[in-house]
Design a protein that fits this description.
This protein has 386 residues and is an alpha/beta fold. Helices cover 35% and strands 15% of the residues.
Length: 386
């Protein structure tokens, strides 16, 4: 089976699945880039991964562009992320199996639906192909809500996402899984860019409540951004310097190591967080996660109270009791963290996603029904907590 992924550029969240597909028996895999890695991503620590053997950088020459078009039109299945529509038009007209790969379409509430330019774009990309073999890989639990709202992809949306590397290290390597740590100070971690929609103020306001309640804890905040200074000032004004530390921005490998030292991870973004790969990473590295319900990955990855906790987005009154429960119940917190690791290793790993996608493609090409009930490549439907 020949599989082609088409997107602007390849990043470290895509390579684990890409590597699995490339090395899979019976699969010929290609990744087509349409742009070079932007300077913004380079500044955020992204590496240029275009030297991988399966990558075709179509923007570099007319020869590479023609090779890309040939691969796209000849492939058994193509996955399209952010890429020029003209590169897949011939394939779609010929009714060849194709998947779009998307976070939610409307990160802001769709009050602008009446705009004819928006509807024209939606019709060109999605609606006019609703009766053709074009499917949606949902990189958000809310993608199905948005595409169903415009009358596209009915019963043709499958759960997908971003799949960072999941390391199979011994659990003893995680300090946060040491049962004796229940007797020490629990460490809480927040890691993100300091942006308004990431809501760095929420962990600080939570810390104030926890301190007032007499809890033993320490909050470490990692990252940089426009809201860093206001957040630091908030900590100072609330007299929380003894409870909150600002740890700066670290390389991804160092962040993963830090996760293994923290018992609790807070993920406080609102609906603007399309997927949120830091959830995969914190769960696979032994954190008990408390996450906002409007983050795209949360409804797919977390079963509330089982392998993590979910709070109402932006609501401090919802966040506080969730964290208090984890602080009050170290045994349950430990079990929750272990279940999170199991979820990532067994269900949402890059290897399982790659295997399931190949099986799904074979089923659709043979006009057969898939049987997955959860996890990657299971059916996704509109989610009520929108």
């Amino acid at each position: 089976m020949k599989i082609v992924m088409l997107s602007n550029f390849i990043n470290h969240h895509q390579t684990p699945v890409a590597d699995e597909l490339y090395n899979m028996s019976g699969v010929e895999y290609w990744f087509i880039e349409t742009k070079s890695l932007p300077e913004e991503q380079r500044n955020l620590g992204y590496s240029d991964l275009s030297s991988r053997p399966y990558v075709v950088s179509s923007y570099k020459s007319s020869e590479k562009y023609q090779k890309a078009l040939s691969l796209i039109n000849d492939a058994d299945v193509v996955i399209v992320g952010s890429a020029p529509e003209d590169m897949i038009l011939e394939r779609l007209r010929n009714k060849k199996l194709t998947f779009r790969y998307s976070e939610r379409l409307f990160k802001k509430r769709p009050w602008y639906f009446p705009d004819p330019r928006v509807w024209m774009d939606l019709w060109k990309k999605h609606i006019r192909y609703k009766n053709k073999p074009l499917y949606m890989l949902a990189a958000s639990a809310y993608t199905a809500n948005d595409v169903y709202a415009i009358g596209a992809y009915k019963n043709k949306v499958y759960k997908w996402g971003y799949f960072p590397r999941v390391d199979d290290f011994p659990l003893e390597a995680c300090e946060n899984l040491d049962a004796s740590s229940a007797e020490s100070t629990p460490h809480i971690m927040w890691c993100a860019r300091f942006l308004r929609w990431k809501h760095p103020e929420l962990p600080v306001m939570l810390a104030k409540r926890l301190k007032d309640k007499g809890y033993n804890f320490h909050l470490d905040m990692y990252g940089r951004g426009d809201e860093l200074y206001p957040t630091q000032q908030l900590v100072k004004s609330l007299a929380l310097n003894d409870k909150v530390s600002f740890c700066g921005s670290l390389p991804n490998e160092e962040i993963l190591k830090e996760m293994r030292k923290h018992e609790i991870f807070l993920f406080t973004s609102d609906r603007n967080e399309g997927w949120g790969a830091v959830l995969n990473e914190s769960m696979s590295n032994g954190c008990a996660v408390v996450a906002s319900n409007l983050i795209g990955s949360v409804p797919f990855l977390i079963q509330d109270g089982e392998n993590g906790m979910v709070f109402k987005s932006g609501d401090l009154d919802s966040l506080t009791p969730k964290v208090c429960y984890l602080l009050d119940n170290p045994t349950e917190r430990l079990e929750m963290a272990k279940k999170a690791i199991h979820t990532m290793r067994e269900l949402w790993s890059p290897a399982n996603a790659a295997k399931r996608f190949v099986e799904l493609a074979h089923k659709l090409l043979a006009d057969e029904i898939t049987s997955y009930t959860d996890g990657p490549c299971s059916k996704a439907y509109p989610y009520k907590n929108n």
